Amino acid sequence: MHLVNVPARLRQLGVIPVVSLDRVESAVPLGEALLAGGLPCVEITFRTMAAEPAIRAISQSFPEILVGAGTVLNEEQVERAIAAGAKFIVLPGFSQAVVNLCRQRNLPVFPGVCTPTDVMMAIEAELAILKFFPADAFGGLKTLKALSAPFPNVEFIPTGGISAANLEEYLSFGKVLACAGSWMVKSELIAAGNFAEITRLTEEAVAIRRRARSE
Asked: Which are the catalytic amino acids?
């Protein structure tokens, strides 16, 4: 699975479910729900103690799911994510140390940016796919389009405030590789064991992606 072209796969999938898991026991049912909804991808954030074992559980149970680690803040978390089976790393901001380590490990890394200065730092680090975060709070698609203009070779993964209501608009913009969001994998749905609703919302997101990209 390490041989997969992660950016190409994310472009194909178009949507990255971002989840914060409190209990590792929820990991496998979540993987099943996402697969049933037609979206074999998940970004598990390092915001909880369950993150590392959840990455491992989904990676081992579902090799076909592209599993990433999100909210990665330091090199130690990168090492733990790799050991657990993560195939890509997502940062809330830019860290040269984390980027360097991911490069050494040949692991795709997507740091968060929201200003031209952030983007230029990432370009200097030879990165061309960046997380635009927090997207909605920083002006949404209008800001993203303005930010994209001076950097024609950069693609973005908008994150923060993405929902079924604005997903099509974002995905219709050519500089958007994929959108990341948690609306289909909300913590309350997972806590309630409502994986059927997660599957339904995932199917809806997939349908929106197909419409936006005329599949």
From this structure: 43, 131
